[in-house]
Specification:
This protein is an alpha+beta fold. The protein has a single domain, classed as Glutaredoxin (3-Layer(aba) Sandwich). 42% of the residues lie in helices and 17% in strands.
Length: 118
């Protein structure tokens, strides 16, 4: 049986592992639009690309979904927010574009200007 202090230490370690494991402390955040209209435009496929990349070792990235941005003509959208930089929002993102966002933007720091929503 654990002492009260050992129990607290164990709970704290578990909480820290959950925070780190979910990527909450990452310096890069990726938000994929997952409103109904974005799903109809193909955002589930885009989200899957990012999820697979993270499962396969892409680190320092927190992935989440976002709601409607009111820009149906530009869907699916992906927003990349990096610590200390201006957020970048990409429009009409396909599976192939998602792979390029991972390789060029997230891994190499290159903003893909021709896909950016202004």
């Amino acid at each position: 049986m654990l002492t009260p202090l050992e129990t607290v230490k164990k709970k704290r370690a578990e909480a820290i592992n959950r925070i780190v494991g979910k990527g909450y402390l990452s310096t890069k955040r990726v938000y994929v639009g997952m409103a109904t209209c974005e799903i109809a435009a193909g955002s589930k496929d885009v989200m899957e690309v990012f999820q697979t990349a993270i499962k396969n070792g892409l680190t320092d990235v927190y992935l989440s979904q976002k709601g409607c941005a009111g820009r149906c003509n530009l869907e699916p959208t992906v927003e990349v927010i990096e610590e200390g930089l201006v957020p970048v929002k990409y429009g009409r993102v396909t599976r192939d574009m998602a792979h390029q966002i991972i390789e060029r933007h997230l891994k190499k720091g290159e903003i893909i200007e021709e896909w950016v929503i202004r």
